[in-house]
């Protein structure tokens, strides 16, 4: 049995440096690109292991992992360009791509701008708000999280964020009238350490307010898959997938589990990477 080789590379310099990993030999077939945002490459290791017969590429999105950090806002357009630069650096033509969460939004933006980069596009639970009926309420919550981060720091902002992404259903007008969650509920300190480099908050509001280019996505035809977890209910990211699929005119594709089920992190975040990988393989028909 041939031992798997993993090589690490960097495309770009300075703040534009993106670190990516290649598992296997790029000459052996169409690469499978796996990524999220702000989740870095380490979060996709278990899913990558489900494809021992394929060359798999993972990368750290801008502002995360092994890349330079900062405090300024990051945009979906920047991330989309980064995806394009990684694919171009591979130098092997179009790839199959799976993007989850913010990575799914960035994948949709990249596919709209550079459709020639992709053989298949699987966007898993993109938290894109503009096509939702409660878009105004969602963006108001995001603005509140952003202002909380600026005023009180990471713990308070992340507590609000977690409560928001766990909310099952449309966001009501009265959502922001409720008491703010205690950071201790989620195991986070209430004290502000002064750090403002959290890449998740830096991605807001741009990624969540990104409006997909429906016509460009429709032009992808059967290369495009919008995916949602069967256990995700009416959480905002799953609703985003369904709304975009409806706008494009395709059915949403069911995946096992929920938002983060491609990785298993017990006891707090149990997942089903084997089942998830099998479903991705089935969807890609490889």
From TrEMBL:
This is Hydrolase. It comes from the Bacteria. GO terms for molecular function: hydrolase activity. InterPro entries: AB_hydrolase_1, AB_hydrolase_fold. Residues 43-165 form the AB hydrolase-1 domain. Keywords: Hydrolase. The keyword Hydrolase applies.
């Amino acid at each position: 049995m041939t031992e798997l080789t993993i090589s690490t590379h960097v495309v770009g310099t300075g703040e534009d440096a993106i670190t990516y990993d290649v598992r296997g030999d790029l000459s052996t077939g169409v690469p499978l690109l796996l990524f999220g945002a702000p989740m870095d490459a380490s979060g996709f290791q278990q899913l990558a292991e489900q494809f021992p017969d394929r060359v798999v590429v993972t990368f750290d999105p801008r502002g995360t992992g092994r890349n330079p950090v900062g405090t300024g806002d990051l945009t979906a357009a920047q991330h989309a360009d980064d995806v394009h630069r990684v694919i171009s650096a591979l130098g092997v033509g179009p790839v199959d791509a799976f993007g989850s969460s913010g990575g799914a939004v960035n994948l949709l933006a990249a596919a709209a701008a550079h459709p020639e980069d992709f053989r298949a596009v699987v966007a898993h639970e993109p938290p894109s708000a503009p096509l939702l009926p409660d878009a105004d309420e969602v963006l108001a919550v995001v603005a509140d999280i952003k202002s909380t981060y600026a005023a009180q720091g990471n713990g308070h902002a992340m507590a609000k964020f977690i409560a928001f992404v766990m909310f099952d259903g449309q966001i009501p007008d009265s959502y922001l009238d409720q008491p703010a969650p205690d950071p201790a509920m989620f195991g986070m300190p209430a004290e502000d350490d002064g750090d403002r480099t959290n890449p998740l908050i830096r991605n807001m509001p741009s990624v969540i307010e990104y409006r997909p280019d429906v016509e460009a996505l429709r032009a992808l035809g059967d290369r495009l898959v919008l995916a949602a977890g069967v256990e995700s209910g009416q959480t905002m990211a799953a609703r985003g997938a369904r709304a975009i699929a409806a706008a494009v005119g395709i059915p949403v594709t069911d995946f096992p589990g929920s938002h983060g089920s491609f990785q298993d992190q017990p006891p707090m975040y149990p997942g089903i990477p084997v089942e998830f990988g099998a479903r991705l393989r089935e969807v890609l028909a490889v």
